[in-house]
Amino acid sequence: KFLPNSSLAVAPMSSAGADTMADADINPTGNFDYFPEAQGLYDPKHEKDSCGVGMIADLGGQASRSIVESALLILENLDHRGARGCEVDTGDGAGMLCAIPDAFLRREFKLLGVELPAPLQYAAGNVFLSRDPARRDQGKQLFEATCASVPGLKLVKWREVPVCSDCLGKTARNFEPSIEQCVIQATGPLASDVRRFEAALFVLRKKAVKAVDEVPDTPLYVCSLSCRVINYKGMLTCPGLARYYPDLLEEDFQSHVALVHSRFSTNTFPSWRRAHPFRYLCHNGEINTLRGNINAMRSREGIMQSTVLGPALAECFPLIELDQTDSGIFDNVLEVLTLAGRSLPEAMIMMMPQAWQNSTSLPAEQKDYFKFNSAMMEPWDGPALVCFTDGTGVGASLDRNGLRPCRYYVTKDNKIILASECGVLPDIAPENIIEKGRLSPGKMLWIDFAVGQITRDHEIKDKLAKSLPYGQWIKEGSSMDALVKAGPGNGMPSLEPPLRMSKLRAFGYTLEALELLMMPMANDGEEALGSMGNDAPLAVLSRQPRSCYEYFYQLFAQVTNPPIDPIRESIVMSLACWIGPEQNVLAKPDASHCRRLWLEQPCLLPSEMAALLDISQLLKGWRVKTLDTTFPKSEGPSALQRHLRRVCDEAVDAVANGCEIIVLSDQSVCADWVQLPSLLVAGAVHQTLVTEKLRTKTALVIQSGDAHEVAHFGLLLTFGADAVYPYMAYEALSQLVDDGKIADPTKMHYAYQKAVGKGLLKIMAKMGISTLHSYKGAQIADAIGLGKEVVAVCFNGIASQLGGHSFEQIAQRVLSLHDRGFSLEADTSIFTTLPNLGLYHWREGPEVEKHINDPMVIAKLQEAARTNSRAAYASFAALHNSLVKGSSLRGQLDFKPPRQYGRAPIPLEAVEPASEIVKRFRTGAMSYGSISMEAHATLAVALNRIGGFSNTGEGGEDPIRYPPMENGDSMKSAIKQVASGRFGVTMEYLSNAKELQIKMAQGAKPGEGGELPGKKVQGGIAKTRKATAGVGLISPPPHHDIYSIEDLAQLIFDLKNSNPGADVSVKLVSEVGVGVVATGVAKCKADHILIGGADGGTGASKWTGIKYAGAPWELGLAETHQTLVLNGLRGRVTLETDGQLRTGRDVMIAALLGAERFGFATAPLIAMGCIMMRKCHLNTCPVGIATQDPVLRAKFEGMPEHVVNYLMLIAEEVRVLMAKLGFRTMDDLIGCADVLRVDPSVRDSGLNLAPILTPAHMLPDAGKIGQVERRKLNGQEHFMILQPLTDSMLLQDFKMTFRYGEASVSEGRKLTNIDRTVGTLLSHELYKRWGNSLQAGTCHAKLTGTSGQSFGAFALKGVFLELEGDSQDYFGKGLSGGALAVYPPAQSLKAGFVAEDNVIIGNTALYGATAGVCFVRGIAAERFAVRNSGAWAVVEGTGDHCCEYMTGGRVVVLGPVGMNLAAGMSGG
Fold first, then answer.
1. Which one of 51, 422, 1084, 1176 is the catalytic residue?
2. pLDDT tens, 1457-1466?
């Protein structure tokens, strides 16, 4: 049942009125997976998941009932790491992978009249089938027929798996499969060959799925099919797994190993097959490089062979199940590597290698081993904890950055318990535990049940590294350094100045590109800083011939996976990799795999390119083919696509003829020949070779005239290039030398190459990718304004949600640029002949780029703000809206006449007053530090006067602003931001908020942390941030305590405990898939979600981040609103947007696309006097806003009245528009996108705006899950805050302290891992009563057991938490003066447990601590005291990255530390 076609003619929707589809209409085919088809801006391919993982095993392989029961209890204690959808009883997924329970299966099948063969001579597996009887029978028949076609396999019997459907939630039950268990017998030679039996079962499964796929509406999914292990899983809650599958409760259902998994997905759509575990593993994490890994595996199929699988391997292609999650796809590849002959640990190391390139402690043999492996496969890069088993052994491995937790216990009764948290089996006696450990970054452990003991990481890798002569084999390859030394040594020829100038113009070089971007790179080896965001038009809307690169924006990590830190954690990153032809990845290792070329850097120097072109003389048997990538000007625009096809065909022929290196070169550009854009060429050739399964047989080198910015290199590489030779960039540097602009010409090429390399690391790090090897071909960018045909040919698999320019339209721009180069008279003076288009800074003139922040617009806005003149505001709005029409997506939209959606204009006096509308307004998160105290406080006063919210930004807030002013005003910001730098985030700060905002990303630099130059870190800024005066601050990317979606849920829980009266907000930035991410955030129980536009301002950022990352807010907001509606979650959260909002028209469009709150940042600064000099990062703001210079601050003339006037004028314009459109209140119009249409007066850009304009409530699948709502109608269920948590009991224990301030002691309370955030609510309540006045130790809680995450988070002075036991991640997070102590139980110590040899707390302890003391008797895991700015701590050992970016406090480590100690530390 859908809502009427338009919701606009009816009253505002209420929860009671929101309807859902009838159950019978939802799943007529009996499918057990439901993902809506792509609709509006929603696309199911962007769905993600994360999770909690657990494992228990008997080291000796002794099966028992206790293993299964313990696994079920572990799963139940990980329930908080999973999630629910829009129903409390529908989980995201839970499951168990265990050994075949032989006794149980024998008994069950005997009841069916079948005597099972001996163990390992039969396989069993659970199969999901349709609930529709006819379709179920058809699926079984296809499976049986396929089984009969595989030699050596005999299907013995089907068994209906008993289930308890009553425990399912409504959605899970609507899509519940029919579950049957099949037994397959090995016959003939397979009966005595387990390896080949497993291979035959793999072939059966693959062929059966392919057969079923050819029959519509016949769903079939084999959970597992093995003679060793079996999988029980589903769309279940953690406690619901055992209730749903009674098999798991049977006494003879026994195992020696069990893996369990609690899933957290970014949707509420039922997907039984996507629940973990898979056939070999369960995975907590995300594969960031998945597109590239998939493309590489597709290409490898062209040369893949296996002696075990034989000819049947080809029948199993494609090996990857594209309808699975990244975890399922990882499992696909792990499975085939293992079946082909590698051990499970060896295959895992190959796919998830540790960070070996920059290690100084790794033995040479292991380095050689890793380097050899990298010649066969790129890393599957991203945060990951993987547990894996094939029944003969069990292991676990952690990603190279350690961005997932993994804790384990080893007991005296020969058990290992490993999970995302410790203490998941709370009843283990302390004296029974002999070891408490954790996996370190990139490390692994493995238990071979035949051996009966744990094999540690160094033992595993040392044995593998020494098993074959890898170092000797590596010498079979060559390196670029060796080539250069053996090569001609004369570099590449240079152009004569006249031709040089023509080509520079033809390839799109501008004066800005050379002055602003290339000169700093060549002189300093660094990218230049910029500020104040990007207010230039989208490339597709620009009237200038913008390059193909400018249609793209880099993707970045937010929420489901973390970006990483390329500055302080560069040790885990690398640009080095092999290029050239690969060998069969399934073959036995030998020297042939290393006959490739090793590059340290993908940006080639002239000497390197010369050596590469001469490679056939230097490396025996290597051939290089140069393909011309130009087209005749005389053939016109239609020639571009034709010649692109020609180059692709030539590339295929070259590879077929055995060319190891293909050079794609546009060097022949001249007056008559025009370049094919390098990015189109690289993408098209790469895609063609992938499709033909030829890509792994050659290297692609781009000899490019147009690549000169860091972003250009990133795009070329991520879309398929192996290396880039930017010959015209070097020509531009030569011209700068001629004009005296380069300090040291002898070093300029190296400095430029260095700057490109550092920039690439930053681009990769934004997406959480550590190695260029994984980034290449991974397509980590999406497009705005490229037509579907262009995307299909050149960039297949990426998103270009709105379509756009065709090949012919691109060709017209290329020809226009070419004419600029070859229609002017030659002139060797670069500064008189290169154009200055004003792409970065506003320039006056007819042939320049437009900017929204035009000087006339600024002047009119300031006039309106200062005079409160509606006429001046109208002039400003008209100018602004005119500029927006030519630059942004909202400029392409207009309002329909009211009669078209069933309304009529109403009198202005009938519309909600402006005084109510302005309460929806907020200022952007501009930090104290990026702007002056005067400007920051003025914004706060203004917003407090009108009932809006101002935002602290990430720099903290000086407590002197908390008390009311004498005139009744308040300088206190309502929104307190909690960002990755955690500057000044104390209990006092948190308790003084109305809203707590988690900064996941920032529009001007998503995937990066904030940046404050040292010149601005002065006086009050240094004090408030608890930093060292004069030392610049570059915040880490948001990865320390928000490195996955369940960790974001934990931070939201922490903040809700720190101030239950404040809403918790999460700031995201628009990109394709942000709606899916926002759905996950809503499931994390955020109250408020902000979708920032990529064009937002910033105080300081590299230009690449400002220009090439993130998407317009119109796309992200519309997608988020639509996706939340599809998931039945829209009514739980408030949506906000920001990004160059200026007028009432902007506000109206944002509201109609789904926003309820509206952020303004640059515009209020302009109202206070900003003139957009874009000097914020230089501390030279002439009007005293973005500076800390006392002389310049004295020039500040802004007043709260100016900001109030401006915002009230916007609200009045909103009222006028509402009256014209027939709306009385803002609530009525939110999400009513059917009021909008494409403006008939705009120039046709080829954009298809229908996906933005599709009303969410009218999407085909709206209402299938949950209720259809257009705005927030219900609060989040923060029920855990209100339940009797440990803190609620502590409040009772310390009632005398609350009444009189007396010292109190609480004793005897036992904690388990589900007792999270202990001490935080207590600290908040104490602050409300006593402020910071309590003496240390006033409230002393003596606790025992294993605490949950965030023990003592933000604990206030006066609170002393003493824990006899152990704890998890985020111990002492944000410690605000409290005291913490943790030590092992007395029983453990009496039994010989050695505290200093064992791990007692998890990752990221004391993150962002500002004051207090902490005593840890034992080892802390990774990232201890990161961003500590005041706490004192003693610990008996730490993992990697201890004291990273610390600015204050003291830390004593009485024991070993991991790598990267004190990186970026500037105080303490």
1. 51
2. 999 999 999 9
